[in-house]
Design a protein that fits this description.
- The chain is mainly alpha-helical and about 180 residues long.
- The chain folds into two domains: about 80 residues, no CATH class; about 55 residues.
- It contains eight helices and three strands, in the order αααααβααββα.
- A three-stranded antiparallel sheet has the order 1-3-2, with helices on one face.
- A hairpin with a 3-residue loop joins β2 and β3.
- α2 crosses α4.
- The longest helix is centred in the N-terminal third of the chain and has 19 residues.
- The termini are far apart.
């Protein structure tokens, strides 16, 4: 009789309860250290659970089920990641792989220039601008926008002068633009 009384009062926690506890542990780890450096597998959580519940194969299985149900991504060293879903982590890894040979350019020192033009012309005008060797050195980047073509340049005067001479364009200041 004491054995059945003991087992009912020291029942293993539910899987949901284990999930919540694991999330709480990992969240605290992330808040404290910025990342997880301690938890790679279910057994790493057992010290905590065994401090509250008697050690048993049932407790171990419940913690393992909780880990599986959480479906947490793991970093390159195998540690659980709490602040991202598996999909977010995979997308971040893919982005990282694709951007490894890329360069970041700060456009803060560039001047944006908008060429307002009809929709049907934009792609062809962009192609011609990118193909013109004399223009390639005058812009950092250009893209199609809803109202035309946006060009970022470090030489706004030369670029405006080129377009003014080459094509009859009305040069407007930003205060003249109607939104």
């Amino acid at each position: 009789m004491p054995s059945s009384h003991l087992s009912s009062s020291h029942k293993n926690p539910s899987r949901k309860s284990c999930e919540q506890t694991i999330k709480r542990i990992l969240t605290r780890e992330f808040e404290e250290y910025g990342e997880n450096h301690h938890f790679k597998q279910a057994s790493d959580f057992m010290i905590y659970f065994e401090s509250l519940h008697p050690a048993s194969p049932g407790l171990t299985k419940q913690v393992q089920r909780a880990i599986n149900a959480l479906n947490l991504p793991r970093d390159e060293n195998g540690y659980f990641i709490i602040n991202k879903t598996v999909e977010e982590y995979k997308a971040e890894q893919e982005l990282s792989l694709l951007l490894q040979s890329s360069t970041l350019i700060n456009l803060q020192n560039c001047t944006p220039i908008l060429i307002k033009t009809e929709y049907w012309k934009r792609k062809h005008v962009i192609h011609l601008i990118r193909s013109a060797p004399e223009l390639q050195r005058l812009f950092v980047t250009l893209t199609e926008t809803d109202s035309g073509i946006l060009i970022y340049t470090k030489n706004p005067e030369k670029l405006t002068e080129f377009f003014s001479e080459f094509i009859k364009i009305n040069v407007e200041s930003d205060t003249d633009l109607s939104l």
